[in-house]
Design goal:
mainly alpha; transmembrane helix; transmembrane
Length: 52
């Protein structure tokens, strides 16, 4: 039972937070890379209403 009591709940939350933050960062990097690669196609739907 001593090995289970050494598990810290705060440490688990911190690890989960870091993992979710890392996943969010990967998604943002992917989206920004797609925007840099082809900015007109990626931002076409947002610029369309301002043209009219």
């Amino acid at each position: 039972m001593d090995e289970f009591s050494s598990v810290d709940v705060d440490k688990g939350f911190a690890i989960a937070f870091v993992v979710l933050l890392f996943l969010f960062l990967m998604v943002m990097i992917f989206r920004c890379a797609k925007l840099v690669k082809n900015p007109y196609k990626a931002s076409f739907t947002t610029t369309e209403p301002s043209l009219s």
